[in-house]
Design goal:
Elements (H helix, E strand, L loop, with lengths): L3 H28 L6 H42 L5 H8 L2
Protein name: DUF883 domain-containing protein
Organism: Massilia atriviolacea
Length: 94
């Protein structure tokens, strides 16, 4: 069974890969706007739709990842009885 640390690394790698794909697709759209044939316009429209979907999915992944991080921090604070802001900050750096 995968451990949580491996899952976290895999998720971070997937998010990074998705960011790179989005950047490349945006660059491709910018660099092909001078081509006006029907074939290019159709391909660009499909790419734009896929890019929008990928961007939305990336935002969803990042929101879920942030939620997991917040929950893990909350659980660590409760487990270690970190009642003050100072104790919570110190835990974040250890």
């Amino acid at each position: 069974m995968d451990n949580p640390e491996e899952n976290q690394q895999t998720q971070e790698r997937l998010i990074g890969d998705l960011r790179l794909v989005i950047e490349n697709a945006e660059e491709l759209l910018k660099n092909t706007d001078q081509y006006t044939s029907v074939l290019y316009r159709s391909a660009r429209a499909k790419l734009a739709l896929a890019l929008n979907a990928a961007t939305e999915e990336l935002a969803r992944f990042e929101d879920e990842q942030l939620g997991r991080m917040i929950e893990a921090t909350r659980a660590a604070n409760a487990e270690n009885a970190d009642l003050s802001g100072e104790a919570r900050i110190m835990r974040a750096f250890h």
